[in-house]
Amino acid sequence: MNNRTLVKNLAALPDGPVTVSGWVETVRDQKKVQFVILRDESGAVQLVNPATRELDETQQGDAEASARLATTEAISALAHGSFITVTGELKHDERVKLGGIEVKLATLDVVAAANPETPIAADSSLDKRMDWRFLDLRHPKQNLIFRIQTTFLHALRGVWVEKGLIEIQTPKLMASASESRAELFEVDYFEGKAYLAQSPQFFKQMAQAAGFGGVFEVGPAFRADPSFTSRHATEFTSIDTEISWIESHDDVMALHEELMVAGFQAVVDKHGAEIQELFGLEIQVPSRPFPRIPLAEAKQIVADRGYVIPRADDDMDPEGERQISAYVKETYGHDFVFLTDYAASIRPFYHMRHADDSSLTNSYDLIYNGVEISTGAQREHRIDVLVEQARDKGMDPEELEFYLDFFRYGVPPHGGFGMGLARVLMLMLDEHSIRETTYLFRGPTRLLP
Ligand code: AMO
After folding, report:
1. What is the rounded distance in angstroms from the CA atom of residue 378 to the CA atom of residue 240?
2. Is residue 161 domain-shared with residue 266, that is, in the same domain?
3. Whose CA is nearest to atom 1 of ligand 1?
4. Is 19 assigned to a binding site?
5. pLDDT value at position 399?
6. DSSP H helical segments within 282-317, as ranges?
7. Is there a single domain that holds both residue 106 and residue 143?
């Protein structure tokens, strides 16, 4: 490792010699003085170099003067984006706009020069930016998104670990569909076929039969979804949890709330000021409990607001989600709402149905700022009922044998949820697309980089 100081730590140091490393954000090459803005993963600092444009006769052969000339010429030739290491004198000077400090250059080492023409600019299209994602990610806003993501996931893990849940990694190569046969990626697998996991659903439930009590996973999920919306990807990071001994989906929602509050609190505590500065947003930590509205009631509320969801027996559509969120915001001042008790007709076979009304399920969707971020439910753990429900959905229980076996040797009542990580971040940061909040987006027409 070199002995660089992170830019964010410079301000706390006294004036004196420092080494910093990073990339060149801008160069202002004036006749008498040169300024370079150097950025690293923690911030930006101004470097200043009094220019030595030529050597007079007395300076010929003077090694120090020659070095100053070489540094000046190197700065004039510096391409934006080049990675450099510099040494120099740190000086606190409140006139310097960028943080009240600057580094007066002694040496400059161009460690890795960039091509002089940068392929993207601030006004490049999202698609073009995605082509050059590694350069796009150098922007402090993009960098902050992934530091927020780190903090958010760390906070969730903190809750899970504290509760004694076990982290699992389920396989992504499967012998059958994990959600429905729609949106399924099929891959050649030696002599046969395999499918990419759409969700860890079956295997997080398996952990309940295995007596794990509670599990969580943060991992990839794949959907062969041909749509080009702002909220769909063909590969996304799914946050999943599953817990035993619940009484109903209420217990799942309670854990879900606790996780969200911990995640948002950690983000606000650690990044609130930066988010304000770079995104102009004041992130709200949600209060508990989140409002809960049965789906049928939510549809009525939306209809009363003048929006009729086109297919009456269907799920909420995106406009319906926006409308119900607007209602919840106006009525309860809340950004989140659990829509509960979905009709069995629009839920998977593994959702438990109401004891007194088999047309409804013990399930919910969590809507945040107008978009679904999560689906959760109590699962049907009684094997005979489960087989019946699979048949009801036109599924062949034989194809599901491996899954149904989990329920033949005893399994406690359980439930859980799956949540799209990029969607949470998109809505938290008021971004327009999950492409902004996904490290490398995958969609129908994007497999690169
Ligand atoms: P569901 O299919 O609703 O439920 O997915 C759960 C959450 O995952 C996210 N998500 C997506 N994100 C980006 N692109 C996609 N194509 C995409 N599809 C889904 C959403 C969604 O709310 N097994 C159940 C969960 C459970 O019951 O535990 C499931 O997968 O944020």
Report:
1. 14
2. yes
3. 375
4. no
5. 85
6. 295-304
7. no
CB 426 within 8 A of CB 436: yes
For the chain, the residue count is 449
Are 282 and 328 contained in the same domain?
yes
The pLDDT value recorded for residue 351 is 98
171 plus 292 within the same structural domain:
yes
**What is the distance between the alpha carbons of residues 167 and 149, in angstroms, rounded to a whole number?**
18
Q: How far from 138 is each of 40, 260, 440, CA to CA, in Å?
A: 9, 28, 14
Measured over the CA atoms of residue 271, residue 276, residue 280 and residue 282, the dihedral's sign is: positive
Confidence of residue 312 (pLDDT cuts 50, 70, 90): low
Q: Which two tokens stand for residue 229?
A: 């919306």
Q: What is the pLDDT of residues 358-367, one digit of tens each?
A: 999 999 999 9
375 labelled ligand-binding: yes
Q: Is residue 349 included in any domain, yes or no? A: yes
Q: Hey, which of 203, 374, 419 would you mutate to test ligand 1's pocket, going by the most ligand atoms within 8 Å of its Cβ?
A: 374
Q: Containing H/E element for 417?
A: strand 414-420
pLDDT score recorded for residue 411? 98
The answer, as to whether pTM is greater than 0.90, is: yes
